[in-house]
Amino acid sequence: MGVQTTLSFLGAAGTVTGSKFLVDTQDCQVLVDAGLFQGLRALRRRNWEPFPLPASDVDAIVLTHAHLDHCGYLPALVDQGFSGPVVATQATADLAALVLRDSAKLQEEDARYAAKKGFSKHAAPRPLYDAADVARVLPLFTPVGFHERFSPVEGCQVTLQPAGHILGSSTVLLELGGRRVVFSGDLGRPGHPLLVAPPPPPACDAIVVESTYGDRGHQTEGLDQLAAIISRTVGRGGVVVIPAFAVDRTEVVLMALKQLTDEGRIPATPVFVDSPMALGALRIYRSALDRDSPDVRTDLGPDSLVFDPGDLREAHTAQESMDLNDPGRPCVIVSASGMATGGRVVHHLRHLLPDPKNAVVLVGYQAVGTRGRDLAEGVPQLKMHGRYVPVRAEVAQVEGFSVHADGDEIIAWLAGIPEPPQAAYVVHGEPRAAGALAGRIRDELGWLAVVPRDGERVLLT
Known about the structure:
The radius of gyration is 22 Å and the shape is globular. It starts with a strand and ends with a strand. It contains 14 helices and 21 strands. Helix content is 31%, strand content 20%. Strands 6-5-4-3-2-1-21 form a 7-stranded mixed beta sheet. Strands 7-8-9-10-19-20 form a 6-stranded mixed beta sheet, with helices on one face. Strands 13-12-14-11-15-18 form a 6-stranded parallel beta sheet, sandwiched between helices.
């Protein structure tokens, strides 16, 4: 009897966040991604639950990329006993260190703030993890190059290919127990302004594919929308706040602002980047351009100019950030977090949302239960730091800046595989999006396509 290999869906099944997929041969257990749940409170509570198996039994973790919903649970796993290698590209390791440190800092700050203001239900609010926990994670990172077949533990091989989503992001081929499983991670778009397009997936027995935008196509008029709202807002003397993910989305937005300024489509306006993590990521991106990183396009200009719209300013200190709550002149503020779940952007929204001359531009996916999703759905008031503020500023959602592949792009990527897999498992999407993509895979590619249930385990045969 051959080795029995199973695949378990421990997160991002029926929802977008919390990516965790376990491949188990009984002799070897490898986890692909270790992400935090985000959004609705019921999901966030799951971050506090014990991992469904002893963390010390996990032999290795493979990270597709450095976004928090894919790497943010690592410190909790280490705290529960995981001590194996964390396989990722060098850029993912660099960015994950930044993301995890920032996550710990924000959690510690939020816990202290909640305790001080008394709006937590807990008598002594505490963070899920702190900076000391993150420090225990970082030595476990084991960087590998793209297309390098690497064995983190005996009987397991990992090969990473560029995913085109953020710097260092990868699709994963995992060879374990005589089976080949591909994980798309978060799949990028062919037209990313900075990164190369993801190559087709390799032949495999099963493929696990994301579906964030599986039920829709991306708009193509994103630049036009952004230009219009910035011009309107500056014209009425207001401030444009752009909540942006600190890693990659900030860089993409800066490149768009540079293009619009160079083309004279928006007035010359100071652009502030106000997020310590975003500024750290910007340094890593500039370094990648300097060293010609293999997943970065080769047709870009000097790195000192790629991200500068003309009057780029960096807000490093807390005081510099607080000054932007009332900047006294029209400007653009790019600040994290991208779903307004925490970070400096929450303070800016609290001060700037009540004024109708200001504007908020949402440039990424907004998960259910986040402040960004509430704004996108037109709420008249928003709760921040224990109090409600009125939403009088103009709010616009510009989806053309997404770096997730849409339904057509995912299908095209899957269709490039050398031969059909035995099954495709559709994850990392809200139920409607995942169901729509699974239907397209069945109808257009003729494959077996399944939307797995949370916690489900399947045999790989």
